[in-house]
Amino acid sequence: MLSRFMSGSVRNLEREYSCTVRLLDDTEYTCTIQRDAKGQYLFDLICHHLNLLEKDYFGIRYVDPDKQRHWLEFTKSIAKQMKSQPPFTMCLRVKFYPPDPAALKEEITRYLVFLQLKRDLYHGRLLCKTSDAAMLAAYILQAEIGDYDPGKHPEGYSSKFQFFPKHSEKLERRIADIHKTELIGQKPETSERNFLQKAQMLETYGVDPHPCKDVSGNPAFLAFTPFGFVVLQGNKRVHFLKWNEVTKLKFEGKTFHIYANQKEDKKIILTYFAPTPEACKHLWKCGVENQAFYKLEKSSQVRTVSSSNLFFKGSRFRYSGRVAKEVMEQSAKIKREPPEIHRAGLVPSRSCPSITHGPRLSSVPRTRRRALKITWVFYSIYVTGLGGAKPGQANASDCSTAVGTHSFTSATKAEAFGLTQTHPVAWTLERDHKDRISTCTLQPCPSDSVLPTPVAEHSMELAVSRQINGAPCSIEEEKELEAGTPMHGERGDFGADSRSAQEGAGGDSALSEVEQVNKFVLSVLRLLLVTIGLLFVLLLLLIILTESDLDIAFLTDIRQTPEFEQFHYEYFCPLRRWFACKLRWVGELLINK
Known about the structure:
- By secondary structure, the chain is of the alpha+beta class.
- The chain has 15 helices and 16 strands.
- α5 crosses α6 (169-181) and α5 (130-145) packs antiparallel against α7 (188-200).
C-alpha cells in the first residue's frame, strides 16, 4: 500500500516514462513517452510500427497492481491511468472483434485478428467441438509451416504443437490427416482467411469472458460479442441478447444489471454479481463500449452514459472512437500497396514455448540463436537434476532475461515436479550480458486459463480453475503481471507464509473500506451541491415571477409584504439600473465602432 501512495510522487518527478507493449506475435515494442502523453499517442505509435490502418478494432490492455484488467483510454493521460510505477507494460489485443473478419480490407489486419483468435483458441476462450477443433488446428498448421513434407514432418509431427489447453491423440491424428490431404497448396493468407471464416461461425467467437455469479449464486461468464450480449453457464449459452434489444447497462458496487426489450414488448432485467466493484465497473465499461461500437450508426450519436439513474451518483463514461459502420466505410476507401507481413512460424511445444509464446528466432541475432540452442541443452540437464523437486523449492522470483522469457504449460514437465495440470509451470531462462546461461528457475504461474477449450463432442465443460479479481488471466496476461505490474510485495517464492497472506488480505479489506467511505462522501457532496444549485435556481425564478406583471394571487400577496418592498427598492431596482447602464454603454461602443 505504501508503494502505491509513493508511486504518484515518484512519477511526478519524471518527465519521460519507458513503456513496453507486447504485440500479438509476442514481440515487444518499447518506446519513451512524455509525462502528459495520452493513450491515443501510444496507440498511434504502435499502429505506425505495424503499418496498420484498420486500427479501430484493436486496443491496449494493462493490468493494475490488484490484478484487474483495464483497457487504456485514449483520451486520458497514460500516467494518470496507470496505478503502477514505470516502466509501464501493456499489450496490444483485439478489443472489438470484426463481425466478418474474413471480409477485412487488408491482409495485415486479418493476420492480427488471426493471431488473436489463435490465442483465444489456445487459452480456452474460443470453444469448439472436436471436428471444428481439428479443422482450425489444421488451418494453423498450413498457415505457419506450409504443405506437408514427409522429409520435414515425421510421423506424429502434429503432436509436437499445442493448439489447445489439452487434446487427445485421436485429435492429433485427425489434425495431421486434414493437413496432409485437404490443405495441400494453400497459401498462408488463404489458410488464415479460411480459419477466420470457420472461427466466426462458432458461438464463442469474440467472447472475452467476465466471471460473475447469478442471483442464485451459480457461476456464470458474461461476454460481449459483435452480435450481442452472451451469458454462459456450464456448457450452455443460457442468454443471448442482440444489441438492438439491450436498452441499458447499469452497475452499483458489485451488482451488474442488463435491461432489454424482447419480442412483444417483453421487458427483462438480468442481474449478476461480479467478484469486486472494480471488476464490475470494468464489465460495465466494456459493455458500454461494445454496445456503442456495434449498435450505433454514427459516432455523433454516442452519448455520455451514467451507471445510475441519479445524475449526481455513480460513474459516467463516454465511448470515444468510431463505430463499426464508420470503420467499414473508411476501410473501403483504403487504396495502397499491401504492406509486407512478417509471419512467425510455429515452434514445436516440446522444445520451446507453445505456438506463439516467446520471441521469434528470426528477430534474434545469429549469435544469440546459438545461445538459445545451448539454453535448451542446459534446460534438459536442469530438468534431469530436479526430477523429484517439489513446487515451491525452486526459486520463483522475477527473472530478467537478455533475450526473452519463455513460458509454457506441459503436463509431462509438470508431473516431473509433482504438479497437476491446474497449476501451469513457467520456465524462465536467464542469460547474462555475454549470452551465457546464468540460471534456470521454476516459476509456478499465478493462475491458468479460466476457460479450457473443450474438444469432445458431448462433454464440453467450462471449468473455472482460478479467478483473479474478476478477470480471466491467461498465460500472456500472467506475463504482464510478472513483468509489467508490481504486486503487493516482492515474493521470494510461490508459497508465501500464512502471516503475510493475512496481512495482505487485511490491507486489501482496509483499502476497500476506505474506497467505500470515499464513494459515500463523494455522493453526499454531489447531493449537497445539486440541492444548493436547485435552491438557487428556484430563488431566481421566484424573483423573476414576483417582479413580473403576472396577476396571480400568491404573487400579489408576496408583492404586498414589507420584506418584498424593501428588497425591491433597496436591491432589485439599483441592480436593474446598473445592468441597464452597462447595456447602454456597450451599445454605444458598438455604434461608435
